[in-house]
Amino acid sequence: MTAQAAVITPKEDPWQMALRQFNIAADQLPLKRGIRELLAYPKRELTVNFPVKMDDGSVRIFTGYRVHHSTVLGPTKGGIRYHPDVTLNEVRALAMWMTWKCATVGLPYGGAKGGVVVNPKELSREELEHLTRRYATEIGILMSPEGDIPAPDVGTNPQIMAWIMDTYSMHRGYSTPSVVTGKPLAIGGSFGRIEATGRGVTFVTREATRHLGMPLAGAKVAVQGFGNVGAVAAYLLHDQGCSIVAASDSSGGVHNPKGLDPRALVKFKEDRGSVTGFPSANRVTNEELLEVSCDILVPSALEAQITASNAGKVKARLVVEGANGPITPDGDEVLEARNVLVVPDILANAGGVIVSYFEWVQGLQQFFWTEEEVNQNLERIMVRSFGQVLRGSLDRKVSMRTAALIRAIERVADALMTRGIYP
């Protein structure tokens, strides 16, 4: 095995990544040992193994998880992921990142995450519904509008949230729309929720380019992960005058240094199932996309994409994390040494949970906002949070990631100390 292969195989464990990031920030704070240990580990973890009847009459057993990292600031909030590579450690990491994300942008939530080990593309609609309803039943002991509120993530969508909401409501005997967010509008979803994460990425990208003195109009952008987050960020940045030079999905990517039409690419992917084969573009791998010539890189796929082995080949001046955990701590060190500005996931992609919060509030009050109101409030919170994290980064002379984590950890630790240790 070569030295390079040893770095990237096996893939870095997301939980170890999350703990390393936490410890780097926690070292900057005067935390009592017991408080630090409490913040470092999940509050509760649920593993479920459940049967699903398939279309051919057979029964398959699936494994699912739901992890609550912290409940100090309020109900736990976090998405549900359907992916064949889901592991308990991945869900633990994602739950911890959700705690810090909510705290970074000032939401009254703790962090949670869920996942099922499954490739949803291999299931029929009926099988997907059966799996979703059974999984929702299994984790129903944790879910409630006041306690734990799921949302979509990789491999899930508004329809899956609708099935979860309906399942929970059937068990309660009355409709409970606020038990999940990311629902369709027809059953209490919020305007602006589908575009929220990508729109938030766009807002912080704009703020970061202003800080760097880099013109946004004309900037070349590469997007890894042309899904709900990446595609929206691509066409909104294109609307701001950026040139989208590369995009990829799980099947591969396309590159044209003269620019791609992101909305045409969205339509092409809807028709063909992938961006690969898009006319007037060269095919690239997901790994090659990270190294194309561009000003702004938006990794919006999965964890541990930029590592010590390839961070030195990233050509962008600005990296905005649309995904959770796409850069490993070792990759962070390489980028920081090269003066590449990284806007971290717990800030950059917080738009989704911010508008999920708006949806939850609307559902509890049964009072709904216009799309303009949603987007204005989203922009206000994203711009304010970016400015606060940037000031912390400059004042402490630390990376944006560490500054965001310090802000988040301080907020949760302060709330914990104020509440006290029960009993």
From TrEMBL:
Active site residues according to the UniProt entry: K113 (proton donor)
Chain sites annotated for binding substrate: K77, K101, S356
Name of the molecule in the record: Glutamate dehydrogenase
PANTHER family: GLUTAMATE DEHYDROGENASE (PTHR11606), GLUTAMATE DEHYDROGENASE 1, MITOCHONDRIAL (PTHR11606:SF13)
Chain ranges of the Glutamate/phenylalanine/leucine/valine/L-tryptophan dehydrogenase C-terminal domain: 190-420
Gene Ontology MF: a single term: glutamate dehydrogenase (NAD+) activity
Record key words, sorted: NAD, Nucleotide-binding, Oxidoreductase
Protein family (similarity comment): Belongs to the Glu/Leu/Phe/Val dehydrogenases family.
Residues at which NAD(+) binds: T197, N228
One Pfam family here: ELFV_dehydrog_N
Naturally occurring in which organism (per UniProt): Candidatus Segetimicrobium genomatis
One GO-annotated biological process of the protein: L-glutamate catabolic process
Marked site (Important for catalysis) residue numbers: D153
Gene3D superfamilies, A to Z: Leucine Dehydrogenase, chain A, domain 1, NAD(P)-binding Rossmann-like Domain
InterPro entries: Aminoacid_DH-like_N_sf (IPR046346), Glu/Leu/Phe/Val/Trp_DH (IPR006095), Glu/Leu/Phe/Val/Trp_DH_C (IPR006096), Glu/Leu/Phe/Val/Trp_DH_dimer (IPR006097), Glu/Leu/Phe/Val_DH_AS (IPR033524), Glu_DH (IPR014362), NAD(P)-bd_dom_sf (IPR036291), NAD_bind_Glu_DH (IPR033922)
